[in-house]
Amino acid sequence: MFDELVAEGAAVPVEGWDFGWFAGRATEERPSWGYAALMGARMAAAGRALDLQTGGGEVLAGIDRPPPHLFATEGWPPNAALARERLAPLGATVVEVGEDADLPFPDGSFDLVVSRHPVTVRWDEVARVLAPGGVYLSQQVGAGTVRELADAMMGPRPVDPAREPARARAAATAAGLDVRRLEAESLRMQFFDVAAVIAFLRKVIWIVPGFTVEKYREPLRRLHGRIAAEGPFVAHSERFLIEAVKPGALTPE
């Protein structure tokens, strides 16, 4: 059974941010603030909006009413191609640009910038491309997210504080933005078999950097035995919501 589950997890396509395959194999609680609905409401009221690190455009594609001018960025070419196809009905322009790179937009281009689970945040660039009075809304991955699974694969290790919400507040403030909302939650996750673990680690590559089935076969075997003996493997995802405003007033188009 272990070998069959390993083969199944290793074969799952991992492009984009569609987690539909995990239905019945893993679960994750959702944050109470409802990022997709929040973002959709802001998009409906925006004139010029930008979604940073859109992945395959899965979340952005769910908005009911796109703004007149909609842009998205993505750094991984396969995801950028998916996003162009998925977001075409919204009239969105998808620009391929790396997570750490300068944004290819003029100063003050957008009254709304959003990002779900950015790998990195260039706060200086976010502040630059926001118009005065513009809003940055983002759901981000917190420090120590899914640490139980990382520890099971690599052994116990200290939590990197780089993703602490307080650090995001400080960085946003240093870039000249006013943080008006900051909330954090710890959310229960369950993995019902080792195939789900493998697919997750292949998809969310920063949990166990450099993960391959071959490299981590023995920890995976131990985890398989643990699930068989004790039931689903439980971990916790850390999430926080940050909303920041660029001082000033929006100028109507």
From TrEMBL:
Residues 50-136 form the Methyltransferase type domain. GO terms for biological process: methylation. It comes from the Bacteria. Keywords: Methyltransferase, Transferase. InterPro entries: 23S_rRNA_MeTrnsfrase_RlmA, Methyltransf_11, SAM-dependent_MTases_sf. Gene3D superfamilies: Vaccinia Virus protein VP39 (3.40.50.150). The keyword Methyltransferase applies. GO terms for molecular function: S-adenosylmethionine-dependent methyltransferase activity. This is Methyltransferase type 11. It comes from Virgisporangium aliadipatigenens.
